[in-house]
Q: What sequence folds into this?
């Protein structure tokens, strides 16, 4: 379900690239320090975006790691917000794996089970550190599962579960108005990710008979969105991106401002378009398979 | 009060023209149109007030009082003022929405027997405030179909359809998901390779 949040892709900007990289490496090192090697394998770009939303400063120092043993990379320094992002990431990843296990037969679900065993100890530690977020994640995912079983015809209802789940991360912020801004950004980030993921999985879900909110909403049988459906979905995705951009302007994101700006004014539109075109990476893979 | 120059993000040595430009840009950013039916509208309103005050303070410092408040973008008083169509229970619903008490507004609305255009409009407004954009669009469409002449409903619908201009920072053009060219994928592939090279272990977990 993760890996869609990218900054503007057709305007490479050295400063943006550096802060994105510092956030990415910072989260990776923090995961390693707090949760061991296994958790680092699951790192992705959406979680990197979380680091940028939660942490204002990216004082980066060059660090080496097993992947970059020779040339050190800029890496965001240790901070409380990076720790929180790491805790939340582990919890999200673990529940995502549980979802994968529940969705697949024993054999097909083997990779999820293996990953889940690898991540098990890290998850237990993360749960001790963020018991509230773990409990709310479990509740929202249970509610989402219920809606999936009922084959809920609404787009917004299931998307709301995932969106509210992500919005819960804002509780770690102490300043009330900043918390409201983060809540709104995370809510619409969650809504956007959920809908984009559903659009990306259309064909697979229809083939395997799984519930897909986009298919139900637009009455699809063959896994291809009609032009009208595409337009409607694009319009509702745009609304969420605009809400994120409007919220973004109301808080200070420090060193990460420029790269977040490029995500909410450019990157998300591009990724959404590629997913709807069927040209996003996973869609591409599927075409070949 | 914060330093007015800091509020506008310009040095105190900036020319009148530069100050005006910075002010206009910020006023566009926090314009009420961008925060229509947005749960954060109050924060944007505060920001706008701060910007207006800073601009006026600089103008009076520089003794350009006559040019001072040539334009002062402001926020209306919201639903309370824009209603006017019917008093009583509908007004209470609008008040509840304006105060952000969406559960109360929804309860009051569901208790109403008449399903007229305004009912659908208010229902859409509650959904929009909650972030349920797809449902909100449906209700706004129905409201406009039932009462095509009503400017308030039409505004809400056009806003939902993205037919009203929105703010973009310098260097960005207005974008929509549907309007992205078909070369997007090539760019994404290229950029992801770059990011992977730079960031290292970009290990995806695909479900």
A:
């Amino acid at each position: 379900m993760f890996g869609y949040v990218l900054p503007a892709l057709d305007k490479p900007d050295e400063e943006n690239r550096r802060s994105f990289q510092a956030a990415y490496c910072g989260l990776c090192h923090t995961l390693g320090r707090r949760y061991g090697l296994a958790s680092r394998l699951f790192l992705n770009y959406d979680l990197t975006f979380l680091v940028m939303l939660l942490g204002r400063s990216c004082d980066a120092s060059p660090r080496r790691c097993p992947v970059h043993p020779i040339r050190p990379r800029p890496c965001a320094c240790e901070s409380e917000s990076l720790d929180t992002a790491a805790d939340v990431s582990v919890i999200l990843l673990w529940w995502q794996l549980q979802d994968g296990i529940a969705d697949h037969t024993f054999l097909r679900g083997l990779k999820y089970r293996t990953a889940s065993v690898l991540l098990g100890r890290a998850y237990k530690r993360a749960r001790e550190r963020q018991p509230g977020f773990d409990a709310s994640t479990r509740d929202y995912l249970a509610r989402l599962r219920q809606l999936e079983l009922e084959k809920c015809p609404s787009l917004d209802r299931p998307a709301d579960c995932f969106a509210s789940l992500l919005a819960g991360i804002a509780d770690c912020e102490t300043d009330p108005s900043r918390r409201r801004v983060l809540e709104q950004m995370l809510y619409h980030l969650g809504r956007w990710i959920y809908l984009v993921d559903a659009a990306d999985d259309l064909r697979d879900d229809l083939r395997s008979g799984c519930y897909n909110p986009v298919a139900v909403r637009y009455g699809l049988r063959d896994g291809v969105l009609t032009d009208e459906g595409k337009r409607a979905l694009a319009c509702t995705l745009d609304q969420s991106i605009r809400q994120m951009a409007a919220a973004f302007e109301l808080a200070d994101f420090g060193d990460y401002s420029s790269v977040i700006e490029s995500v909410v004014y450019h990157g998300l539109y591009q990724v959404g378009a590629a997913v709807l075109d069927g040209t996003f990476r996973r869609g591409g893979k599927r075409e070949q398979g | 009060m914060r330093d007015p120059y800091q509020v506008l993000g310009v040095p105190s040595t900036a020319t009148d023209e530069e100050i005006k430009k910075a002010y206009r840009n910020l006023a566009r950013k926090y314009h009420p149109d961008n925060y229509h039916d947005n749960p954060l509208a109050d924060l944007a309103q505060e920001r706008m007030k701060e910007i207006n005050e800073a601009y006026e303070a600089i103008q009076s410092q520089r003794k350009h009082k006559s040019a001072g408040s040539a334009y002062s973008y402001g926020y209306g008083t919201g639903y309370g003022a824009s209603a006017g169509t019917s008093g009583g229970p509908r007004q209470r619903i609008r008040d509840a929405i304006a105060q952000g008490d969406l559960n109360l507004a929804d309860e009051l609305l569901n208790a109403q027997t008449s399903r007229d255009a305004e009912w659908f409009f208010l229902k859409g407004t509650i959904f929009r405030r909650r972030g349920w954009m797809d449902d909100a669009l449906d209700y706004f469409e129905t409201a406009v179909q039932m009462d095509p002449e009503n400017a308030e409903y039409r505004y809400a619908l056009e806003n939902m359809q993205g037919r009203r201009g929105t703010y973009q920072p310098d260097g960005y053009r207005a974008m929509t998901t549907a309007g992205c060219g078909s070369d997007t994928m090539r760019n994404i592939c290229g950029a992801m390779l770059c990011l992977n090279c730079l960031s290292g272990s970009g290990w995806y977990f695909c479900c």
Chain A touches chain B through 78 residues (CB under 8 Å).
